[in-house]
Design brief:
With about 350 residues, the protein is mainly alpha-helical. Helices cover about 50% and strands about 5% of the residues. It has 2 domains: about 200 residues, Rossmann fold; about 80 residues, Tyrosyl-Transfer RNA Synthetase. Helix 4 packs across helix 7, helix 4 packs parallel to helix 13 and helix 7 packs across helix 8. It is globular, with a radius of gyration of 21 Å. Bound molecules: tryptophanyl-5'AMP. Tryptophanyl-5'AMP binds next to strand 1, helix 1 and helix 7.
Length: about 350
């Protein structure tokens, strides 16, 4: 059941669903484009957040590393401020409805819709043999979202197309079988939705590249490492510190964007903050300072949480129970709609 409304609010709280893969090193783009928004708005919403390990295995993973990374990502989300009393946090494979929903949705999704996905095309181009799982990835994601009747899906810009596809699949299922799903909306932050690589500000910061020196600030980097990465960031040969659409100034624009999301300052205020800066060295030093201030408390909390294995397991089990309470009945509804019989309890005697 959805929680009751806070005083003064008339409409029901919006249901929010989002997810993150436990593969690669989680970086500042993931934090500013997604996680920070989840944390900041969790009191206003009815939230489900998922560590999507089934998505992670659509590309090759080392099994032992995946186990560690799933725990690590869960601890990191809690350390970043997800509050288990406000948000259900769970691991995707712990709630079997996700894989089942994917199958049911597969059967209404034309292959052509999946072949058009830009992320699929990018990833497929880098691999010799492409698995069915990689092609099917956005249908699994649609299942994640639709099982919870999510109104809002807060994501970075690179997931926009996948959420659009989830809308198309929801609409198609509703048309074929009657009104079943809420048609979800992507919620993409105005700033921070596309944090660019520090080594190449024309390409987005990405988990698969984040181990490369100077590409990303990783959320668990220490102050010295953060400082080093930001001081080495690629800028331009000028000295103007302002927001700009000019591709030649993408590096400066990216640094200002990072500063702006972390401090919550507006565009004009941000530029004013740097009016007295002496060149890009100053800009980088100040951006590094706010990033270090934002990430240091998260890293410290993470160090504590990751040690308490029993507590982390307990929280994830509780999150999975809350997720099952919503997704279980929804999956049954999907099955009934398409004409599958539900298993009845076997009676003895
Ligand atoms: P993933 O794990 O790649 O990324 C997690 C979130 O971080 C955002 N993000 C960025 N934001 C700004 N700048 C960047 N450079 C940047 N890089 C990544 C992503 O947009 C995302 O919001 N398919 C999803 C996970 C998923 C999901 C879902 C999301 C599975 N099921 C259901 C929403 C709803 C993914 O791989 O995210």
């Amino acid at each position: 059941m959805k929680p009751t409304n806070p005083p003064g609010e008339t409409a029901a709280r919006k249901r929010v669903f989002s997810g993150i893969q436990p593969s690669g090193d989680v970086h500042l783009g993931n934090y500013l484009g997604a996680i920070k928004g989840w944390v900041d708005r969790q009191t206003e919403k009815d939230n489900f957040f998922c560590v999507v390990d089934l998505h992670a295995i659509t590309t090759p993973q080392d099994p032992d590393a995946l186990v560690r990374q799933t725990r690590s990502m869960s601890a990191l989300l809690l350390a970043a401020g997800l509050d288990p009393s406000l948000s259900a946090l769970f691991v995707q494979s712990h709630v079997t409805a996700h894989a089942e929903a994917c199958w049911l949705l597969n059967c209404v999704t034309p292959v052509g819709w999946l072949e058009r996905m830009t992320q699929y095309k990018d990833k497929a181009a880098k691999q010799e043999s492409i698995t069915t799982g990689l092609l099917d990835y956005p249908v699994l994601m649609a299942g994640d979202i639709l099982l919870y009747d999510a109104d809002e899906v807060p994501v970075g810009d690179d997931q926009r197309q996948h959420v659009e596809l989830a809308r198309d699949i929801a609409q198609r299922f509703n048309r074929l079988y009657g009104d079943t799903f809420v048609v979800p909306q992507a919620v993409i932050p105005q700033v921070g939705a596309r944090v660019m690589g520090l080594d190449d500000p024309t390409a987005k910061m990405s988990k698969s590249e984040s181990a490369a020196r100077g590409h990303a600030v990783r959320m668990l980097d220490g102050p010295d490492e953060i400082q080093r990465s930001i001081m080495r960031a690629v800028t331009d040969s000028g000295n103007e510190i302002r927001f700009s659409d000019d591709p030649g100034k993408a590096g400066v624009d990216n640094l200002l964007g990072i500063y702006r999301v972390i401090t919550g300052r507006g565009e004009a205020e941000t530029e004013a903050d740097f009016a007295d800066a002496r060149g890009y060295g100053d800009l980088k030093a100040r951006v590094a300072e706010v990033v270090i201030d934002a990430l240091t408390p998260i890293r410290r909390r993470y160090d504590e949480l990751i040690r308490d294995t029993a507590e982390l397991d307990r929280l994830l089990a509780r999150g999975a129970e809350r997720a099952e309470a919503v997704s279980g009945p929804k999956l049954d509804e999907m099955k009934r709609r398409v004409g599958l019989t539900l298993r009845r309890p076997a009676h003895t005697g």
